[in-house]
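Here is an idea for our session: we take a single protein and study its fold together. Start from the sequence, derive the backbone structure tokens from it, and show both lines together. Once you have written the record down, we can walk along the chain together:
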Amino acid sequence: MKNVDVDIYVNNLMSYFDKNPGDLYDVIGKTNKDIFFNKIKEQCYKNIENGEDIALTKDQFVKILTELKDKSSDVFVNVATGIFQKTKFGDISLN
């Protein structure tokens, strides 16, 4: 199933990170960016199936990021305050 709105959402994220590669590294580190964006797209389709907004929530982003991290490495510090998530790479905004 293909959805134009999902493609637009993911392409906008990709475009932002293409223009700001440092921000992408801050978010995903050395993780493969194609896998990251595929996980985002999968979650968008799950959101549609559940009747939710296409855009990912902060919790959904954090879940994707923690799934992608190597289990043997230091993963995220689980502190979510305000609009920022503290990670081993620094603070990120998922708003």
